[in-house]
Amino acid sequence: MGTLKTIWKNRKQIIEGITNTIIRDETIEVIAALRHSVCDGCSSKGGNCVAPGTGPCCGECGCSLTFKTRSLASECPLGKWKSFSTVEEEDELNNLKN
Questions:
Q1: CA proximity to 36, closest of 72, 77, 68
Q2: Torsions phi, psi of 64, nearest 5?
Q3: DSSP SS3 for 58
Q4: Residues 6+ apart with CB under 8 A from 23
């Protein structure tokens, strides 16, 4: 189960997931749906959320699956799906947009 320290460490990935939940992109939605289908079959789904009210969550890390599956820099803590980019690459892309 994740802790607030883990949340702070992964804050950029969490913010990316929240942003991608609000500002929808078709490609990211396809990726999120594929990732979510993997999570739906996982015995760790439904664990306690580090941030209450953001469920369903991953029982391994406590992250909201809604946000985690939409963060291209995130990966499954059990290795069931990988990241598409690093946090640094996401930062570079965001700087290009501004």
A1: 68
A2: -65, 125
A3: strand
A4: none
Residue 2 has pLDDT above 60, yes or no: no
Give CA–CA dist 6/85, Å, rounded. 19
Reading the block at residue 92, the tokens are 């570079």
Q: How far is the first Cα of the chain from the last one, in angstroms, to the nearest whole number?
A: 35
Distance CA 4, CA 65 (A): 17
Range of the domain at 55: 4-97
pTM, rounded to two decimals: 0.81
DSSP H or E stretch at residue 90: helix 87-97
SS3 55: coil
**Cβ(43)–Cβ(28) below 8 Å:** no
Residues 32-81 pLDDT 10s? 999 999 999 999 998 788 888 888 999 988 889 999 999 999 999 999 99
Both structure tokens of 12: 């950029």
Amino acid at 34: L
